[in-house]
Give the backbone structure.
Amino acid sequence: MMLVLSFIPAASADAQDFPKGPINYMNPFNPGGEVDIAARAMQPYLEKNLAQPFVINYQPGAGGGLCWSKLAAAKPDGYNIGGFSIPHIILQPIFMKDVTYKTEDFVIFSIVEYTPIGFGVKKDFQVNTLKEFIEYAKANPGKVSCGGVGKFTGHHFATLQFMKLAGVKVNYVTFQGTSQVQTALMGGHIDAAFTNSSMLVTTKDQIKVLAIGAPQRMTQLKDVPTFEEFGFKMYPRIARGAMGPKAIPQDIQKRLEKAFLDTTSKPEFRAKMEAAGFVPQVMGIEESHKFLEAEAITIKQLAQEFDLKRQ
Amino acid sequence: MDLLNHILLGAQVLFTPGNIFFCFIGVLMGTLVGVLPGLGPTAAIALLLPNTFHVSPVTAIIMLAGIYYGAMYGGSTTSILVNIPGEAASVITCLDGYQMALKGRAGAALGIAAFGSFIAGTISVIGLMLVAPPLAKFALAFGPPEYFSLMLMGIVILIYLASGSILKALMMAVFGLLIGTIGMDSISATQRLTFGLLELSDGVGLIPAIMGLFGVAEVIANVEQEIKREIIATKVKNLLPNLQDWKDSFWPMIRGGILGFFIGILPGPAPVISAFSSYAIEKKLSKHPEKFGTGMIQGVAGPESANNAATGGAFIPLFTLGIPANSVIAILLGAFMIHGIQPGPMLIDKYPDLFWGTIMSMYLGNVMLLVLNLPLIGLWVKVLKVPYPILFPLILLFCLVGVFSLNYSKVEVALMIGFGVFGYLARKFQFEMAPLVLALVIGPMMENNLRLSLVISQGSPWIFIEKPISAAFILVSLALLISPFIPWIGKRRRKLQEKVEGEQI
């Protein structure tokens, strides 16, 4: 099939000589975060596939909202693309009045991976299980500081969901990226954090991981129970990949989709991602948008339950 | 042995043709900007940063670091031969170095400056190697309140050491903090002071600001005054100092190296302060303090060693905490980010190749500099003879092209010119640039850590006092701010001011 396809001339000259220059990949968070780890892992394959430099630049701030506001306004020529996180790009346009993008402004080329969100506490914290933590938090309402990245993000929602289901109140502290959350938790500057499985896998010996938001236990974290095991039906996760302004011409969209799919279907790439605590995915434009729509329904339902105000 | 393994790792990283080549380019460029008055390492690193985008992070850092310590070598050449300090850190070298040159001993002065820099550079690299990794472990104890207080102290120290009035330095620092608030709020994405310009939503770029304040402003200021250049006409010979020179200089070099390293760790214009302090110490320890200023070789050896060692010390806060101690390190910090490296306590653990590779490159760089400086002095003298009507427009051109090539943004070019004009005027009224630049860099980090601290403490400002490390920093800052009002300390500060006069880094 691929053989046949490769003999069909491309629909337009545009796509045929795309890309002619470096691809500028905007990273919405700090270096060392999940978007960055995935992008750095893809970079060599993408550069080979596209025969152009794949330049990663960092635009952290406002839980990614700063970067995506800019990406939505960028020239739709395929040279300006960026990383994204779901549910952030669903939630921010609804709740943050200062972000200037809408979820519909973008075309998603590919969802590359997702990470379940888990819960950890600092090493010398006095609790050892989620049950003990809940007891402690109930006795000290609002006193436990709990880190996460940004507001109206996956971590923020996981915190809200947990507070509601467990009937506790914690003090949510927003950071600019998971690498900062990780350093703060390891240094004991915050008591607890909702953070990504990838971070929990790499730092599991320096903190105490109490629960993971996956339907089943993760192979990389065999000893960590799921929230479901405690009776909390919550499965928070963050899915990530690459997107660009929607007005990018169809054939260029297809070219980028192919570059990402060729990369993410490589077994060695998948192995690398799994070892780092990710759940790798191979999704093209159509599947990615279906995934986005499904996630949007669940997450909007949750948002209604929390009775959040636009700010 | 752990250390040995690390050294081997560093050597492995360094000894590739590419990295050796970039190390060479770095020290060569460094020496060149050190020789040229009006272009310092800050502007040079800012200028070359865009050219490092396509190489690996460690290669980029190796080259940029080379510019920094290379400039310290080059700076001495002009001080000795022309009595014009190529670098602020070499101001003090003029005193005895030029006198030595007048007495026909330019060769010995240049030679001892190069050897001193080499020996002290080595001391400082060893210090960096031994001190940084344990310190990085300790750095995990730094949370948002500690970071905030430390940065506050950094700015206060810089203000305290200002060569002019404290009030003016304070004004510049506050102005820098204000400029730092331009752009999108990092927590709620609210636009602040951007006037609808998309280019400003990221904040004011550090590089246009630095190129304007240091490059453009310097050129305008230099055009105004005619610099007298009396290059020692006689041929420079006998670069190798004699036995007596070595005897006289050995301890000043060692003392200068150790002193420079520790001053380097502190925030502020370390190479300048350490050179002045070393001169003062040598004068005090000498049996013939009255002869200083008439061509004493100790007066060259000490300060030249100290300013070189200080560059190594300045890497410690960068590698362990991710905090820039001065404007040169601030650009290096930016380079880390551009190359996808999160600075902070985890850096040495996560990127051992970067840390040890950079350190090993400093050894090699110091050897290269020794080789470059001794036989090539004739060439540097020729560079000094380039007429300013050619040199200054060239520098201006480099600045314009350099800034534009960053993001192809005309707004940033305009910003640079604006900062240039501002820098020129500020200089005329004896306002210093250093507090402004440091505040501009640190401002957004400070704001972020302030807000995080207050969220953690649920709005209580006492968190900065309750944490012991943070409380200590706050205490030092307060003491420094209050001290000028106490008469006898005020007098000593004025003395210190006289020492740091002319500082620009």
Observations:
- Confidence is low (pLDDT under 50) at residues 1-13 of chain A.
- Chain A has twelve helices and ten strands.
- The interface with chain B takes residues 30-32, 36, 40, 53, 55-62, 65-66, 69-70, 73, 96, 98-99, 142, 145, 150-151, 171, 173-177, 179-180, 182-184, 186-190, 311 of chain A (CB under 8 Å).
